Amino acid sequence: MEVRSEGIQVRCDKIQGPVIPRTRLRIWFIRVCSSIVLWTCLVQVVTVSELWHSRLISGITSGIYHITQVQLPIQADNGVSQPPPTFLPARNYTSNGFLRVSCNGGLNQMRAAICDMVTVARFLNLTLVVPELDKTSFWADPSNFEDIFDVKHFIDSLRDEVRIVKRVPKRFNIKNGYSTLEMPPVSWSNEKYYLEQILPLFGKHKVLHFNKTDTRLANNGLPLDLQKLRCRVNYQALKFTPQIENLGRKLIRILHENGPFVALHLRYEMDMLAFSGCTQGCTGKEAEELKRMRYAFPWWREKEIISEERRSQGLCPLTPEEAAIVLRALGFGRETQIYIAAGEIYGGERRLVQLRAAFPLIVKKETLLARDDLQHFQNHSSQMAALDFMVSVASNTFIPTYDGNMAKLVEGHRRYSGFKKTILLDRKKVVELVDMHQNGSLHWKEYADAVREVHEKRIVKPTRRRVILDKPKEEDYFYANPYECLCEETNCDDLLGQLP
User: Looking at the DSSP assignment, which residues form a beta bridge with residue 98?
Assistant: First the structure.
């Protein structure tokens, strides 16, 4: 027995020699596999959370996210650290489907459309996909939503109202039997249209794609909570990217260091002149160029336009020369710092000669910032427009020479910010007075007095929007005067006065 026992012991020793390293390898392999499985599970949990947004899973993934993220304090303009923003808990609801939207137009037209589409998604209990921006318009800007707006802030700040995702989940693609319905919603529609005409479509199509979004929601007649949500998106959720915000604040700081300034939205740009048919002050060659451009864009419906008639009706943007003589009449002196909030002025420096002669302190973003500062923004017209937008909102006085989308949205922002001084020019009366002065019918004092008298009541003050039944295009635009959002109480009579 001893011999056998010793023999067994000896054999065991021989066997155990090579077993030890194999065991360690096996333990190491098990640990690696466990880690892979664990991280795979975490990824699956996050994916399921994005698709179904269950409150439990959202809580777990949110906790994991906050544990793994380093929260950096936000620096205010005065250099004082501010805590990161806190957001309300996500709203828990059963989604009726996914809403994709392709915004059309320039930056501010798209901005208003985004506010409208968030509101539609909230009202219909939909999941909104981060909006797609127009890349085919005159400006041909390749920027995506996340290149202009802080997409994370947009999603998080609205999570208590509507669920927003970056893309439609792959399981809702055509391979799995789902087809996306492409359509433009009817312009100026109220909530009844979306409830009765649009919502039933999600029963068959889980994904709808609105391929046009401009002015697709009514100005008036909507419930107060929907109007306030439009404002919340516009004034809080649509925050520019840190890169745009930082450069915009730098521009504003430089301007304020040099004293008060007027932001002149001089909409005398090639696309506007071609679209409107306004050629006042242009050479014959330039007028032909503008006409060719108008014909090149089939969705610009009016082709044959008489510029003189259009101008006399007040439907043309003021020329730089007209802007100069109007600003002088309004009392702005040579010492006034004027920021030109616009793209390239058609005709270049030749058209700015009179304006510069009257106001030597004319500046633009291109003259205030170093070339390196703007290098990233070149060939990105919407990002450049975002800088002009920020400066216009922050200016001491804002004067638009045309009532386009930017002028309207800046006006609304300035109302929301405490009714900063905004002067809305009466273009029809202005060109009449300018012509009378230039042909000698009105001496300077008479002309200047008349201009000031016309605009005494055109400095923006609290007022209700003008409602014109069955003519929404002729109503006051919601985003220019969102009066429902200017006071906390349902009844705003103290601010706006009694209804007539």
Answer: 127, 207
Distance of CA 260 to the CA centre of its chain: 26
pLDDT of 298-311, one tens digit each? 888 889 999 999 99
Length of the chain counted residue by residue:
500
Query: Are residues 180 and 439 in contact, defined by beta-carbon separation less than 8 angstroms?
Result: no
Within 8 A by CB and 6+ apart from 448, the residues are 328, 329
* CA pair distance 96, 90, nearest whole angstrom: 17
Distance CA 270, CA 344 (A): 8
Instruction: Measure the CA–CA gap between 96 and 110, rounded to whole angstroms.
Output: 25
Task: Give the tens place of pLDDT for each residue, 362-408.
Answer: 999 999 999 999 998 988 999 999 999 999 999 999 999 999 999 99
